[in-house]
Amino acid sequence: MNAPATPSDLSDLSDGADGTVFNGTVDLPRIRRAVREILIAVGEDPDREGLLETPDRVARMYAEIFSGLHVDPRVHLKRTFTQKHDEMVLVKDIEFSSMCEHHLLPFMGKAHLAYLPNGQVVGISKLARIVDMVARRPQVQERMTEELADLMMTELNARGCGVILEAAHTCMSIRGVHKPGAMTMTSAMRGAFLASATRAELMALIFSTRR
Ligand SMILES: Nc1nc2c(ncn2[C@@H]2O[C@H](COP(=O)(O)OP(=O)(O)OP(=O)(O)O)[C@@H](O)[C@H]2O)c(=O)[nH]1
Ligand SMILES: [Zn+2]
User: Catalytic one among 100, 112, 139, 161?
Assistant: First the structure.
């Protein structure tokens, strides 16, 4: 069996076997071939009119929703500016959708990102940008939560940070255990947010104003 292709393998290639061009990071022709195989395996006819373009659509879709594998979210946290503000900064209700690595089905919900600045703050949109980037990978919710916390803590030189994700997993609703409405909550606390008072303040800011 061939070793899985890495981004650097693919970035050297300009054309796929069927003459189409790679986007530099994702092997689109390979995905097309695989989707065609899946259609045959489930008993479909990939040559019927409605399915003719499906392998290509799915390939382009995966290139989009897994684009976070080929980018470094730290770029968004490089530009900080001096601002006296010793209290918590929280951006809450950042909507995201990601892909469960066990079933390749979406999980989607909201991310809440908070940090305690250390003389420098970052543009608030950048916190939403790192959520978007990290979300576009196959993963489990716990890892996504931890990665966001580590990114903020390290890149912002923060005194502390807290990340809370709440998400619905379609692998738990449309199949398997069939529990639509179940929400999975995960949190990752670093530095000053490990103190119960700071953690409690964060929870109150996120959840107490909700109807
Ligand atoms: N901890 C965690 N588990 C997840 C996440 N996404 C999916 N899962 C779970 O991953 C597990 C995979 O379990 P398996 O027994 O290997 O797979 P399965 O037979 O398809 O399991 P069922 O979903 O129970 O039908 C399931 O319990 C999923 O609910 C996630 O983000 N975090
Ligand atoms: Zn799943």
Answer: 100
> Which tens digit of pLDDT belongs to each residue from 4-22?
444 433 433 334 444 444 4
Q: What is the pTM of this model?
A: 0.89
Catalytic annotation, pick one of 37, 95, 102, 142: 102
- The CATH class that applies to domain 7-65 reads mainly alpha
Atom of ligand 1 nearest to the CA of 101: 6
Catalytic: 70? no
Q: Which CATH class is domain 76-207?
A: alpha beta
- Find out whether 171 is annotated in a ligand binding site: yes
- Cα–Cα distance for residue pair 144/54, rounded to 1 Å: 30
User: Looking at the chain, which residues constitute the CATH 1.10.286.10 domain(s)?
Assistant: 7-65
Confidence check on the interface: ipTM exceeds 0.90, yes or no: yes
Q: Report the alpha-carbon distance of residue 129 to residue 43 in Å, rounded.
A: 40
